Amino acid sequence: MSTSKFSWQVTSITGHNIRRKKTNYSLMKRTILTLAVLAGLVSAANAQLSFSLKEAQDYAVKNSFNSQKAQLDVEAAKSKIKETLAIGLPQINAEGSYNDNIQIPTSVVPGQFFGGPPGSFVPVKFGVRHQASGSITATQLIFNGSYIVGLQASRVFAEFANIQKIKTDIQVRQDVAAAYFLVMVANENARTLRQSAVTLEKTYEQTKAMYENGLAEEQSADQLRITLNNSRNVAENSQFIVEQVTGMLKIQMGLPQTTEVILTDNTETLTQLSAGDLMITQDNPTSTIDYHLAQTGLRLQELNLKNKQAAYLPTLALFATHQENSFANQFSQFKYKGFFSGKYNRAKTYRSYFFQRHETSAGGSG
User: Are strands 106-110 and 130-143 parallel, antiparallel or unpaired?
Assistant: First the structure.
């Protein structure tokens, strides 16, 4: 008997240890998965990316904040068309209500209505405890001048948003091209200044050695040392400028500031590009994006005028409604008779009500 008990205890402890090991394994698995995701995010943020000017512009059109905002405006304009179109579709509304009159108000009527003596009053209660009602209404718009104009205006506004998106993309490409060129110029300038500092350092070391050997004056060595220090300071400042303009380029492209960017183009390759590759321009004024944007805005203003004129036109609509009411003294009648059994419940309730009032008044007069 004791052996069996001891064996059961050992088995129970072993099962508890197994469950605890499984719990620790699941916790370790979730921890490793979380660390792997965080490591992936950190590596993505600290990634090293290389871009040519064309690649940088294409990346910015998809990821810059201004382009994304313009794309959201386009999607909102498309949704506005659907929203306006839905106004002219059939509208169906359903409503339902339920009232539980816990205490029905009491009123008095002359007792002679129930055979009582003149001047007497009989208390009565009008109504029932449970009341329910339901209705369904369908509406169809036939004619509305403002609706027609509004539908046209929503489509023109969507066109306006698309043109604005194109203009935003053009501006983003121009800004990226300008920032890209600044980064390249700053890098070339910093590289030149660093080489100049290295050359001055070699010259200074040679002059210093000549001075120590009595072949040069001390003043010459001191002047070169001062010039070398100034050159180093200018080189450090140029590197700071490189970081600033590179950060501006990342902002224009929609890149995280922790991402390292390598520019594959140089000043020689950029000079071979046409003006249209750097900044999209058009010689014909009527073909420019600003001209199309102004024309679309003019159409919107014309539709706004039509909308004000259409507001004076009549509106024609069809609607149909169906409503049913149900009354009961007991809630169970709703359950067994159904919700829309108003005629049966109403007639039954009234018969019961007047029968009970007659018995009460007769008893009072006796």
Answer: unpaired
Cα 126 vs. chain centroid, distance in angstroms? 55
Question: Residue 336: pLDDT above 80?
Answer: no
> Going by CATH, does the domain composed of 54-365 fall within 3.30.1490.20?
no
pLDDT at 67 over 80: yes
Q: Which two tokens stand for residue 354?
A: 């007047």
Alpha-carbon separation of residue 225 from 89, 190, 221, 232 (angstroms): 85, 20, 6, 11
Q: Which two tokens stand for residue 137?
A: 């209404």
Distance CA 330, CA 128 (A): 9
Distance separating alpha carbons of residues 83 and 154, to the nearest angstrom: 9
First to last CA, the chain: 86
User: What does the alpha-carbon distance between residue 114 and residue 125 come to, in Å, rounded to a whole number?
Assistant: 14
Buried b (16+ CB within 10 A) or exposed e, 100-115: eeeeeeeeeeebeebe
Among candidate residues 11, 158, 139, 133, the one with its CA nearest the CA of residue 87? 139
Q: Judge whether residue 343 has pLDDT over 50.
A: no
Q: Of all helices (H) and strands (E), which one includes residue 135? A: strand 130-143
CB contact at 8 A, 334 and 85: no
Domain spans in the chain, listed from the N-terminal domain onward: 2-45, 54-365
| Statement: residue 138 has pLDDT above 90 | yes
Indicate the average pLDDT of the chain.
79
